[in-house]
Design brief:
The structure is a single chain. About 85% of the residues lie in helices and about 0% in strands. The protein has four helices and no strands. The chain has helices at about 1-45, 50-70, 75-80, 85-95.
Amino acid sequence: MDRSLSTLNFGITSVILRRKIISALIATGLISGTVYLGIQSGKDNRFVIWFGIASAIAAPVGLGLFTYAFRGSDREIIQQLAKVPEIERLIEQAKTQ
């Protein structure tokens, strides 16, 4: 049973990793597109409106996706702490002091 739990945990971890990689790629595309439109709007006035829309919508969404992609989740931190053998003693020590 412990082995199936380990396999399930690996599956969840790989799904999370895939989501983070996809989020980082989409974020890169959104921010790169905004920069590209900014450069083009300096050359041609037809791109100014598209740059404005991208700056208002695409760039913040891209930054949010970057934050999601590179932020460590609380769940991962708790799982890593649960693996520490003396965590219970440290918790008790912290409660008493």
